[in-house]
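Recall that a protein's primary structure is simply its ordered list of amino acids. Everything else, from secondary elements to tertiary packing, is in principle encoded there. The following example makes that idea concrete.
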Amino acid sequence: MAAHRRVTLVAFTALAPVSWGTTYAVTTEFLPPGRPLFTALVRALPAGLLLLALVRVLPRGAWWWKASVLGALNIGAFFPLLFLSAYRLPGGMAAVVGSAGPLLVVGLSALLLGRRPAVRDVLAGTAAAFGVSMVVLDAAGALDPLGVAAALASTASMSTGTVLTQRWGRPEGVGPLALTGWQLTAGGLLIAPLAFLAEGAPPALDAPAAGGYVYLAVVNTAVAYGLWFRGIGRLTATQVTLLGPLSPLTAAVIGWAALGESLTASQLVGMALAFGATLAGQLTGVPARDRNRARGLDTDAVPCPRSGILGGPPPGGTRAASADPRGDAR
């Protein structure tokens, strides 16, 4: 892959976590409070159905269960678990746990893809997690065991889903938008009964709330996840997972620029460290066999590459996606 094409691909993929970093501000400023599952449902299901209507491609054969598994891991389980952790943990603790995603993906890549962990990958992932912790960990409070467990489970769910996304690739002739639509629809259908059982009927919406939900469903989810899953097929694990810290960093910048939050010297150092680790992670090359996935070939028919996958993190965004705007509410 030519250098300029790789830079362009990384830049477009990075728009996904940057978009997710706007979720906290949108939900706190425009959406009704206390409806995390409804917000997750509105983000996932309409976006998935919209993409299905655009691409008009449904899964075939084994891809019915594969899409369901990926949708459950990347969307259906990840969203509610992330929301639960955000409600029960202080400040940006959920973001710190989520920032460990690149390290978890490196381990899963070794287990499921046969890729030997590189020292540079581990160091970059560690530096990114430490930098994010410097940005978001200024809120005091006791840690809730259930919240910590939910944060770990959400990170593990998304990390496993993204590794499997690269392992399975895409069916021949199926683009990233179709794969994204399958997963969002499957995940949304999984969330729907939970949302109505736990939160009841949908809330009344005014114009700002309706606009906020449209933004979350279209830009923050359909477009962002389309870019994210496209990046999974063409970049290595380290490259994509280390774009994840851009989400809490974006949230911190928005909190400072638009919501009147202040940034301390240690937070600025942490932002620089996390951003530097993100850039360092893009130095990893793309193995030649990964180009099969870029062409949309299913890895069931192509030898599984020994490269990595995408990473974390992903979507969340509820008013409680922590009281701290620097939390990782994707």
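The CA atoms of residues 120 and 156 lie 22 Å apart. Confidence is low (pLDDT under 50) at residues 286-328.
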